[in-house]
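Why should sequence recovery work at all? Because a backbone constrains its sequence more than one might expect. Tight turns favour small or flexible residues, buried strands favour hydrophobic ones, and helices have their own preferences. The token representation captures these environments compactly. In the example below, the structure is given first.
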């Protein structure tokens, strides 16, 4: 018997011990002796599978989930969130590398201007491409709120870039006969019309602001400042329309310029808040030794389903 056990404790006859010797009935691996061990063949299939999943999973708190996905924790089928990387910082990066320089352009820092036309490339490939790709991946993961936000802002950046791109001739259609396409930028028709687009972007951000009250404080700051910024920008375009309609009235043009600079200041605050939450997500993704707060609100405002469940439990 001892010879048999000794033989089983050797691998391929080379004298090296096996990593685990299951022949010893007293080593804790005996079937039924340790019902919590994975190698217990008396354990039923479902219990074993559940323990394997638990051993290979990382428990994530609602606060951490909200921080990395910008959405309250929700139940979805499958394990896609464990399979794929988090797309949220990619979409945020596209937003920030488009908005940050644009905010500086709107404020006219170091002589910048031209409605941010110098950044058309970044609006297409950072703001448009990255946000739409990130939004689509959020859709796959089942994160509805960031999916809608990222896709809509990706479309905004593509729209803004296409409006400034001469190829699409958006402002050229407003140019007086015999004048270059760029003259359309200085017409009542173009500035008044584009102002309406900015108004309804502000309406969209207001809806997002209400929804963000279940995410975190930083996200609330982002949408609050965007609502004000889009309102100021639409006012700036409408004041320009008034000025062009009144023979380029200098006082009205100056007012439009001040409104634009104020909008740039608010979008700069938006961008700084965005960089903060981007940094927070990256630190959380790497399980960094320290974390920075984003002001979690996901557990403070109870969802409708939670309230309904609480009522059912009370009955």
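From this structural description, the recovered sequence reads:
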């Amino acid at each position: 018997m001892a010879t048999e056990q000794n033989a089983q404790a050797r691998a391929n006859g080379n004298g090296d011990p096996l990593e685990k010797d299951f022949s010893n009935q007293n080593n804790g691996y005996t079937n039924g002796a340790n019902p919590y061990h994975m190698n217990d063949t008396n354990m039923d299939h479902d219990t074993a599978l559940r323990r394997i999943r638990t051993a290979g999973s990382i428990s994530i708190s609602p606060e951490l989930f909200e921080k990395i996905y910008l959405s309250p924790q929700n139940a979805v089928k499958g394990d896609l969130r464990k399979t794929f990387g988090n797309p949220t910082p990619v979409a945020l990066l596209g937003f920030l590398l488009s908005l940050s320089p644009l905010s500086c352009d709107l404020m006219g820092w170091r002589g910048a201007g031209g409605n941010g036309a110098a950044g058309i490339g970044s609006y297409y490939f950072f703001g448009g491409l990255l946000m739409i790709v990130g939004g689509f991946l959020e859709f796959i993961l089942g994160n509805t709120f960031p999916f809608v936000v990222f896709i809509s802002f990706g479309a905004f950046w593509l729209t803004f870039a296409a409006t400034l791109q001469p190829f699409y001739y958006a402002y050229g259609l407003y140019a007086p006969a015999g004048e270059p396409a760029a003259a359309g930028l200085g017409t009542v028709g173009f500035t008044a019309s584009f102002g309406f687009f900015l108004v309804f972007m502000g309406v969209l951000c207001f809806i997002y602001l209400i929804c963000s009250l279940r995410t975190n404080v930083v996200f609330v700051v982002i949408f609050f400042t965007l609502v004000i910024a889009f309102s100021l920008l639409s006012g700036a375009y409408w004041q320009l329309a008034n000025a062009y309609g009144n023979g380029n009235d200098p006082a009205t043009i100056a007012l439009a310029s001040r409104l634009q600079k104020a909008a740039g200041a608010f979008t700069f605050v938006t961008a700084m808040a965005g960089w903060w939450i981007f940094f927070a997500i990256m630190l959380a993704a790497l399980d960094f030794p320290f974390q920075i707060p984003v002001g979690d609100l996901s557990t403070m405002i109870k969802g409708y389903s939670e309230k309904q469940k609480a009522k059912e439990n009370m009955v």
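A few observations help interpret the result. Confidence is low (pLDDT under 50) at residues 1-5, 7-14, 16-39, 51-60.
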